[in-house]
Specification:
mainly alpha; 2 helices; 94% helix; 142 residues
Length: 142
């Protein structure tokens, strides 16, 4: 019987190392897979963060250029309005001067019976009011 007892222990000894090697191989295999999966997840997270930063930088550049363009257009419009108002003011100023000359001429040549000077004064006052309104509008635009 001692022979069979040796056979049983040697047989179990031989199968245990194979199981141990298989178990070690399986553990190593699982560890390698876990490491690969973890590195893949880490790489994906780093790459997505990098892409997100690039997109944010691109959007920021585009927004800055659009804002600069809009600001330039706004300044151009304001400059155009200012020159238009100045042109209108100069035209009204010349009309006021012409009316003043006409009023002076009419006043010098007016009869006691005519009431033309009053009409010219009222027209002159209206033109002055319009001139003041345009000046206020120009000040508001500035």
């Amino acid at each position: 019987m001692s022979n069979t007892a040796l056979d049983t222990t040697s047989a179990s000894y031989e199968t245990n190392p194979r199981k141990a090697v298989k178990q070690r191989s399986f553990v190593i295999f699982v560890c390698v897979w876990i490491i690969l999966i973890a590195s893949g997840i880490t790489g994906a997270m780093l790459y997505s963060e990098h892409v997100q930063q690039q997109i944010a930088a691109d959007v920021e550049r585009q927004t800055a250029s659009q804002i600069a363009e809009m600001q330039k257009q706004y300044e151009d419009r304001i400059a155009k309005l200012e020159t238009d108002y100045k042109a209108e003011l100069s035209q009204l100023d010349s009309k006021v001067e012409a009316l003043n000359e006409l009023l002076t001429f009419s006043k010098d040549n007016a009869d006691v019976k005519t009431d033309n000077s009053n009409k010219l004064y009222s027209q002159l006052n209206e033109v002055k009011k319009k001139l003041n309104e345009l000046q206020k509008n120009l000040d508001v635009l500035k």
